[in-house]
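Show me any protein, keeping tokens residue-aligned.
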Amino acid sequence: MLELKNITKIFNANTVNEKVALNDISLTLEDGDFVTVIGGNGAGKSTMLNAIAGTFPVDGGQILIDGTDITKLPEHKRAKFIGRVFQDPMTGTAADMWIEENMSLAINRGKKRGFTWAIKNNDRELYKQMLKRLDLGLEDRLSTKVGLLSGGQRQAITLLMASMNDPKLLLLDEHTAALDPKTAAKVLAITREIVEENHLTTIMITHNMQDAINHGNRLIMMNAGKIILDIKGEEKKALTVESLLEAFHKTSGSAFASDRALLG
């Protein structure tokens, strides 16, 4: 479903501030893979997601989604393939628009539009059903402005919106990092349910090692712009934080230096 072939991204090339953010990365995701990504600051996690999403052009390599080469497509043209949830709950929704208006924009993304009512009664019923499964009481608040909701409520809605049109690929960029532990656990549970029910190929960056171990069928660890560990199947099921740290040290030759990930 996703192929990254020798992807390279260099910021501030040929200057004293040159930074090799992605160093010849290759990665293949099968249809339905749920991959968690862990790594310290500057490891290249978010840069990899931004490269896939088209936030910036890559300096080398090729990106394919479901066999389609999207390497040179601008970000807005990749939207029909990709759903995304950001770390900041304020991103991904329009704060001054109602819940139902946000959901209408999401479900009609990429479709031709004419002069007709954007939201019909049967649309509202669909949105209510989708929101009800979140168990956050939002199904009765369709005309509430999204900006009045809590961070957890906004992230849950953004997750629904990102998965509405069955994207080829769902990108989750530390989407629980700004939430309190209880709310983060709730959003993660919703994430798991949506991903499994819709069989979505998913990449989830997380700052929490235990969450990376507990979720998905595959775990990737990055360091200095490279993928240094790729663990799946029974090996992933047997992982502990301690064994993951040991594997990181053995592969990279250094200790894992992210207190945020260790203490998360």
About this structure: Residues 181-198 form the longest helix (18 residues). The chain is about 35% helix and 25% strand. The radius of gyration is 19 Å. The longest strand covers residues 19-29.
